[in-house]
Specification:
By secondary structure, this protein is mostly helical. It is built from 1 helix and no strands. The longest helix has 76 residues. It starts with a helix and ends with a helix.
């Protein structure tokens, strides 16, 4: 085989390998980015649900305290 053909073949294989590696690397990175975005979305949903439940819990206790205060005042007024 001629030396120039061998050099050209080696160069073509190197360029093809580099291009394939770049494409595969980009694909892997994109998949990782999608997984990270999904995890962030799930974490935000969990945090929102926890905040909602805590707000309901706080509201129940404040309403109960107000109800008990009003009942106490009613009992005092009745006496």
């Amino acid at each position: 085989m001629d030396a120039s053909i061998t050099s050209a073949l080696i160069g073509a294989v190197a360029v093809g390998g580099t291009a394939l590696g770049t494409v595969l690397g980009g694909w892997v990175q994109a998949r990782g980015g999608q997984a990270q975005a999904e995890a962030a979305r799930q974490a935000a949903r969990i945090a929102a649900e926890a905040t909602h439940h805590q707000a309901l819990y706080d509201r129940r206790w404040s309403l109960l305290a107000a109800y008990l205060r009003a009942a106490g005042e009613c009992m005092e007024a009745a006496d």
